[in-house]
């Protein structure tokens, strides 16, 4: 039966030595490290661009590198991307939650991150080749907006970005397009938060950058449930059409990963799993998912892309139609 199968086998297996990185590993004093973006570099090294919260409360991004993406992490002695509020006033209260997309046509990594401005959190974009020097394009989507990632190639002749603006009518996932990565338009809501008692009724947002598969763009998204004792952040799955990602082909009914272990349940913010990055392991099927746990540390879980897609095909429902009245 659909319902029982949906919860029978965990799709993500936690690494037994989690958490993989904590504030204690940092070469300088910090409060917490969490919500890293991830990339596999050309030499095979896995790079995590970690959100580091200083004891001021403001965050910067710092790179950690590992030959296998699991252990032997080497952490840069200084920030990789530090807020520069004099030149970029939108970074006055820090930079957070990066999502990294390798753009082969530019041979550069696009880092899309939250810049915490006095007007609220917005989406900023920077290009880099080495995670040392960044070409900042500034705020590309104004507040309140976050949880954004760039698609790695043109869609119908334009760059495409998935993001999560917030209005007084909710926090839903949108897509926008650009000819030059700077000017963004043709905005469209593609995935609404559900309503009422659903696990993803409070707000939703993109987790890792979309994963391109033969069957479409696999989306991992976080869903937030507001409860009497605070929010619970869990993960769900959706599949967007490959050439028209405005079309949601399937959306899972159930969350597939949520806070269970002590390091996910208890920390600066309890009950949070918040992935911002993944890399492929040693083939095109196994993924290593990196997530912030309880806004306090960085953890790793493994999954098979095929199993995620099979689960979605077996337990997903067609997404909202073009005319959304949710
Ligand atoms: C979200 C983001 C994340 C954070 C999460 C839980 O809104 O700000 O950075 O991990 O809340 O606190």
Helices, strands, pairings?
Layout: H1 2-6, E1 13-14, E2 32-40, E3 46-53, E4 59-66, E5 74-75, E6 95-103, E7 108-117, E8 120-128, E9 134-141, E10 145-150, E11 159-167, E12 170-171, E13 173-178, E14 185-191, E15 203-206, E16 211-213, E17 216-227, E18 230-240, E19 248-252, H2 262-265, E20 273-280, E21 286-293, E22 297-304, H3 305-315, E23 316-317
Antiparallel strand pairs: 1-22, 2-3, 3-4, 4-5, 6-7, 7-8, 8-9, 10-11, 11-12, 11-13, 13-14, 15-17, 16-17, 17-18, 18-19, 19-23, 20-21, 21-22
The structure holds beta-D-mannopyranose.
Residues 35, 96-97, 233, 269, 272, 274, 292, 295 line the site of beta-D-mannopyranose.
Can you put this structure into words, describing what you see?
The chain is built from three helices and 23 strands. It has 326 residues and is mainly beta. The protein has one domain: Tachylectin-2, Chain A. Strand 2 and strand 3 form a beta hairpin. The protein is globular and about 45 Å long. The two termini are 27 Å apart. Beta-D-mannopyranose (BMA) binds next to strand 6. Beta-D-mannopyranose binds next to strand 6.
For this entry, what is the oligomeric state of its chains? single chain
Low-confidence stretches: none
Number of H/I helices? 3
- Average pLDDT, rounded to a whole number, is 95
Tell me the structural class.
Answer: mainly beta
Q: Specify the helix fraction band.
A: under 10%
Proper CATH architecture: 5 Propeller
- Give the N-terminus to C-terminus distance in angstroms: 27 Å
Give the total of beta strands.
23
| The CATH homologous superfamily | Glycosyl hydrolase domain, family 43
What's the main sheet like?
Answer: 6 strands, antiparallel
Q: Which cofactors or ions or other ligands sit in this model?
A: beta-D-mannopyranose
Strand content: over 45%
